Amino acid sequence: MAVTYTSALVDQVWAYAIADDIANFNRFTLGKPEHINFDHNIDFGDYSGAWAANQPDNSVAHDFCLMTYPKSTVTDVDFQRQHYEFSLYACRLLSDTYVKSYQIHHNFAGLDFKLWKMLMAMHSCDNKVLDTSFHRDLGLFNDKLMVVRCDVMWEMNSICEVEVVNPPNNETNMVVCVDRTGTYVYPANEWFPPTDQELIMFNP
Asked: N or C: less crowded end of the chain, CB within 10 Å?
């Protein structure tokens, strides 16, 4: 049986946020959104290649990610089942010379791309993304940032061991996950993270 504490939750999200093969944010922090106003030394990274060949380029770290303090709802005390709710703020510095050279929707696409990469990394048999929504705005906070906020409900680590079983008739278009809480069937294209190109196609 897995017991998930806040430290494990934040450490996992942090790892996805700064991993160079996932979101590749230049900086990550846990706090309240208004704390962004208090920090005037945020390093947003290198935007020189953030948009290349008519698509987002995530090969060099850039942008800032803030995770809000998480709320959790206990749904099963005996098995320590809880759902976490928090927001991820993906922030881009509008005053950067390179950012100014890209169109607004291109910059939004770059932030969308990073958050989608994180969501796909977070979603598996034992870590289920249950619900999420995206909100976009610009000119926020003291530094005049472009922001994409992703509100997430995440069940991190199921209450007991998770088994991935073979689908009926060895179907290749689904993955079946089983734990004490039930059986979950995922389409294969949701279970296996899409390529960068596929993400770009669905989020122009």
From this structure: C
